[in-house]
Amino acid sequence: MKTFLDLAARRRSIRKYLDRPVEPEKLDRCLEAARLAPSACNSQPCRYVAVTDPELKRKFCEAAFSGLYSATRFAAAAPVIVAVVADKGNLTVRVGNLVRGTSFYLVDTGISCAHFALAAQDEGLGTCIIGWFDAKKAGKILGVPFGKRVELLISLGYPAENPTPRPRKTFAEACSRNRY
Ligand SMILES: Cc1cc2nc3c(=O)[nH]c(=O)nc-3n(C[C@H](O)[C@H](O)[C@H](O)COP(=O)(O)O)c2cc1C
Questions:
Q1: Residue 5 falls within a domain, yes or no?
Q2: Which residue CA neighbors atom 12 of ligand 1 most closely?
Q3: What is the dihedral of CA 91, 92, 98, 103, to 10 degrees?
Q4: Residue 131 CB less than 6 A away from ligand 1
Q5: pTM (two decimals)
Protein backbone atom coordinates (compact mmCIF):
# COMPACT_ATOMS: atom_id res chain seq x y z
CA MET A 1 0.00 0.00 0.00
CA LYS A 2 1.32 3.44 -0.92
CA THR A 3 1.40 5.57 2.22
CA PHE A 4 1.90 9.30 2.51
CA LEU A 5 5.25 8.67 4.14
CA ASP A 6 6.40 6.59 1.11
CA LEU A 7 5.40 9.46 -1.12
CA ALA A 8 7.32 11.99 0.96
CA ALA A 9 10.35 9.70 1.17
CA ARG A 10 10.43 9.03 -2.60
CA ARG A 11 10.21 12.66 -3.70
CA ARG A 12 13.45 14.14 -5.03
CA SER A 13 14.25 17.42 -6.69
CA ILE A 14 14.37 16.56 -10.38
CA ARG A 15 16.63 18.60 -12.65
CA LYS A 16 16.53 16.46 -15.81
CA TYR A 17 13.33 15.86 -17.73
CA LEU A 18 12.08 13.62 -20.53
CA ASP A 19 10.94 15.28 -23.73
CA ARG A 20 7.37 14.23 -22.93
CA PRO A 21 4.46 16.56 -22.29
CA VAL A 22 2.60 16.61 -18.98
CA GLU A 23 -1.06 15.69 -19.37
CA PRO A 24 -3.20 18.79 -18.64
CA GLU A 25 -5.35 16.88 -16.12
CA LYS A 26 -2.23 15.86 -14.17
CA LEU A 27 -1.02 19.46 -14.11
CA ASP A 28 -4.47 20.54 -12.94
CA ARG A 29 -4.42 18.04 -10.06
CA CYS A 30 -1.03 19.39 -8.92
CA LEU A 31 -2.35 22.96 -9.12
CA GLU A 32 -5.46 21.88 -7.23
CA ALA A 33 -3.28 20.43 -4.44
CA ALA A 34 -1.48 23.78 -4.22
CA ARG A 35 -4.79 25.66 -4.19
CA LEU A 36 -6.01 23.56 -1.25
CA ALA A 37 -2.98 24.34 0.94
CA PRO A 38 -3.51 26.05 4.28
CA SER A 39 -2.46 29.68 4.74
CA ALA A 40 -2.19 32.19 7.58
CA CYS A 41 -5.66 33.66 8.26
CA ASN A 42 -6.74 31.69 5.18
CA SER A 43 -5.36 34.60 3.18
CA GLN A 44 -4.38 32.39 0.20
CA PRO A 45 -1.71 34.80 -1.03
CA CYS A 46 -0.60 32.79 -4.07
CA ARG A 47 -1.58 32.57 -7.68
CA TYR A 48 -0.03 29.76 -9.71
CA VAL A 49 0.79 30.61 -13.31
CA ALA A 50 1.61 27.49 -15.31
CA VAL A 51 3.83 28.29 -18.27
CA THR A 52 3.13 25.58 -20.85
CA ASP A 53 3.30 27.38 -24.20
CA PRO A 54 6.72 26.39 -25.62
CA GLU A 55 7.54 29.78 -27.14
CA LEU A 56 6.50 31.67 -24.01
CA LYS A 57 8.40 29.17 -21.87
CA ARG A 58 11.54 29.69 -23.98
CA LYS A 59 11.32 33.48 -23.52
CA PHE A 60 10.46 33.10 -19.85
CA CYS A 61 13.47 30.85 -19.18
CA GLU A 62 15.79 33.10 -21.14
CA ALA A 63 14.77 36.00 -18.92
CA ALA A 64 14.40 34.22 -15.58
CA PHE A 65 17.63 32.20 -15.77
CA SER A 66 19.94 34.79 -17.31
CA GLY A 67 23.29 36.09 -16.02
CA LEU A 68 23.69 35.57 -12.31
CA TYR A 69 20.81 33.09 -12.39
CA SER A 70 22.11 30.76 -15.10
CA ALA A 71 22.69 27.95 -12.54
CA THR A 72 18.98 27.13 -12.66
CA ARG A 73 18.76 27.04 -16.47
CA PHE A 74 18.20 23.25 -16.20
CA ALA A 75 14.54 24.10 -15.61
CA ALA A 76 14.20 25.16 -19.27
CA ALA A 77 14.12 21.45 -20.19
CA ALA A 78 10.95 20.92 -18.14
CA PRO A 79 7.74 20.98 -20.19
CA VAL A 80 6.01 23.07 -17.52
CA ILE A 81 7.21 25.82 -15.23
CA VAL A 82 4.85 27.09 -12.58
CA ALA A 83 5.43 30.62 -11.34
CA VAL A 84 4.21 31.00 -7.78
CA VAL A 85 3.14 34.61 -7.43
CA ALA A 86 2.41 35.96 -3.97
CA ASP A 87 1.20 39.14 -2.43
CA LYS A 88 1.98 40.12 1.13
CA GLY A 89 -1.52 39.32 2.37
CA ASN A 90 -4.38 41.24 3.89
CA LEU A 91 -4.09 43.75 6.72
CA THR A 92 -4.50 41.11 9.45
CA VAL A 93 -1.67 39.02 7.99
CA ARG A 94 0.58 42.07 7.57
CA VAL A 95 0.00 43.11 11.20
CA GLY A 96 0.70 39.51 12.24
CA ASN A 97 3.92 39.56 10.16
CA LEU A 98 5.06 42.72 11.93
CA VAL A 99 4.25 41.56 15.44
CA ARG A 100 5.74 38.09 14.95
CA GLY A 101 8.61 39.13 12.70
CA THR A 102 7.60 36.33 10.32
CA SER A 103 6.64 36.70 6.66
CA PHE A 104 3.60 34.46 6.78
CA TYR A 105 2.89 34.87 3.08
CA LEU A 106 6.27 33.30 2.34
CA VAL A 107 5.51 30.45 4.73
CA ASP A 108 2.19 29.99 2.89
CA THR A 109 4.01 30.02 -0.44
CA GLY A 110 6.35 27.27 0.70
CA ILE A 111 3.55 25.10 2.05
CA SER A 112 1.62 25.30 -1.21
CA CYS A 113 4.76 24.43 -3.19
CA ALA A 114 5.21 21.34 -1.01
CA HIS A 115 1.59 20.35 -1.74
CA PHE A 116 2.29 20.77 -5.45
CA ALA A 117 5.52 18.77 -5.35
CA LEU A 118 3.97 15.88 -3.44
CA ALA A 119 0.93 15.80 -5.71
CA ALA A 120 3.32 15.67 -8.68
CA GLN A 121 5.19 12.78 -7.08
CA ASP A 122 1.85 11.00 -6.68
CA GLU A 123 1.25 11.49 -10.43
CA GLY A 124 4.65 10.01 -11.34
CA LEU A 125 6.00 13.47 -12.19
CA GLY A 126 9.15 15.21 -11.02
CA THR A 127 9.54 18.74 -9.69
CA CYS A 128 12.17 21.13 -8.53
CA ILE A 129 11.23 24.11 -6.41
CA ILE A 130 13.43 26.98 -7.56
CA GLY A 131 14.27 30.13 -5.66
CA TRP A 132 17.27 31.20 -7.74
CA PHE A 133 15.89 33.21 -10.70
CA ASP A 134 15.32 36.80 -11.81
CA ALA A 135 11.96 37.55 -10.20
CA LYS A 136 11.63 40.97 -11.83
CA LYS A 137 12.09 39.69 -15.38
CA ALA A 138 9.93 36.63 -14.67
CA GLY A 139 7.10 38.82 -13.38
CA LYS A 140 7.32 41.19 -16.32
CA ILE A 141 6.95 38.42 -18.90
CA LEU A 142 3.89 37.00 -17.14
CA GLY A 143 2.21 40.36 -16.58
CA VAL A 144 2.37 40.10 -12.80
CA PRO A 145 0.70 43.24 -11.40
CA PHE A 146 2.42 45.82 -9.21
CA GLY A 147 2.64 44.75 -5.57
CA LYS A 148 2.89 41.04 -6.33
CA ARG A 149 6.04 39.07 -6.95
CA VAL A 150 7.06 35.71 -8.37
CA GLU A 151 8.47 34.18 -5.18
CA LEU A 152 9.26 30.67 -6.39
CA LEU A 153 9.21 28.62 -9.56
CA ILE A 154 8.42 24.93 -9.82
CA SER A 155 9.70 22.97 -12.80
CA LEU A 156 7.48 20.00 -13.66
CA GLY A 157 7.87 17.06 -16.01
CA TYR A 158 8.57 13.36 -16.35
CA PRO A 159 11.90 12.61 -14.63
CA ALA A 160 14.91 11.68 -16.74
CA GLU A 161 16.99 10.95 -13.65
CA ASN A 162 16.66 9.13 -10.37
CA PRO A 163 18.90 11.08 -7.99
CA THR A 164 20.24 9.47 -4.85
CA PRO A 165 18.55 10.93 -1.78
CA ARG A 166 20.13 14.10 -0.40
CA PRO A 167 21.24 13.63 3.20
CA ARG A 168 18.86 14.55 5.96
CA LYS A 169 19.45 15.15 9.64
CA THR A 170 18.79 12.03 11.68
CA PHE A 171 15.45 11.74 13.43
CA ALA A 172 17.17 12.52 16.75
CA GLU A 173 18.89 15.61 15.28
CA ALA A 174 15.69 16.92 13.76
CA CYS A 175 13.04 15.94 16.28
CA SER A 176 12.55 15.78 20.01
CA ARG A 177 9.76 15.40 22.49
CA ASN A 178 8.87 17.91 25.18
CA ARG A 179 12.15 19.83 25.10
CA TYR A 180 14.43 21.35 22.43
C1 LIG B 1 12.42 27.11 -1.18
C2 LIG B 1 13.32 26.23 -2.03
C3 LIG B 1 14.14 26.82 -2.98
C4 LIG B 1 14.95 26.01 -3.78
N5 LIG B 1 15.70 26.58 -4.77
C6 LIG B 1 16.43 25.80 -5.58
C7 LIG B 1 17.16 26.38 -6.66
O8 LIG B 1 17.13 27.60 -6.88
N9 LIG B 1 17.90 25.57 -7.45
C10 LIG B 1 17.94 24.20 -7.25
O11 LIG B 1 18.61 23.50 -8.02
N12 LIG B 1 17.25 23.61 -6.23
C13 LIG B 1 16.49 24.38 -5.41
N14 LIG B 1 15.77 23.80 -4.39
C15 LIG B 1 15.82 22.33 -4.18
C16 LIG B 1 16.70 21.99 -2.98
O17 LIG B 1 18.05 22.17 -3.33
C18 LIG B 1 16.39 20.54 -2.58
O19 LIG B 1 15.06 20.44 -2.14
C20 LIG B 1 17.33 20.03 -1.45
O21 LIG B 1 18.65 20.01 -1.86
C22 LIG B 1 16.94 18.62 -0.98
O23 LIG B 1 16.94 17.72 -2.07
P24 LIG B 1 15.65 16.89 -2.48
O25 LIG B 1 14.56 17.90 -2.83
O26 LIG B 1 16.04 16.06 -3.67
O27 LIG B 1 15.25 16.06 -1.31
C28 LIG B 1 14.95 24.59 -3.60
C29 LIG B 1 14.12 24.01 -2.63
C30 LIG B 1 13.31 24.82 -1.86
C31 LIG B 1 12.39 24.16 -0.84
A1: no
A2: 130
A3: -90
A4: yes
A5: 0.97
